[in-house]
Amino acid sequence: MKTDVRDHITIRVILKGTYAVVELNRPEKFNALSPHLAEDFTTAWRDLSRDDTVRSIIITGAGPSFCAGGDVKEDLDRLRKLDPVEFQ
Questions:
Q1: Residue 30 region, left (φ>0) first, then alpha (ψ -120 to 50), else beta?
Q2: Count of CB atoms within 10 A of residue 27's CB?
């Protein structure tokens, strides 16, 4: 069975025959969701949904954690850059 690995910045997609493994790849942050991870995941999902050979998708996380939830630090850093009018 041929394996095809597609690395994005925050996820890895591994295609193995008729299934794909989507691995959240931010183990140093316990795979916490960030805007960039969400964008990479959406892109990978769109690409996999167009691939007629993929029959199932397994979602997993690199390292000891699946996903810690939202990356609060990244979310707050983006909000700190807004002026009061934009914050509304």
A1: left
A2: 13
Burial class (CB in 10 A: 0-12, 13-18, 19+), 20: buried
Question: How far apart are the C-alpha atoms of 12 and 38, rounded to whole Å?
Answer: 13
State the CB neighbour count (10 A cutoff) for residue 8: 17
What are the pLDDT digits (tens) for 27-38?
Answer: 999 999 998 999
DSSP 8-state class, residue 60 = E
Taking the model in full, what pTM does it have?
A: 0.79
Token reading at 78: 């983006």
Q: How far apart are CA 79 and CA 62, in angstroms?
A: 28
**Nearest-angstrom CA–CA distance, 57 and 13:** 10
Query: Cα separation of 43 and 38, whole Å?
Result: 9
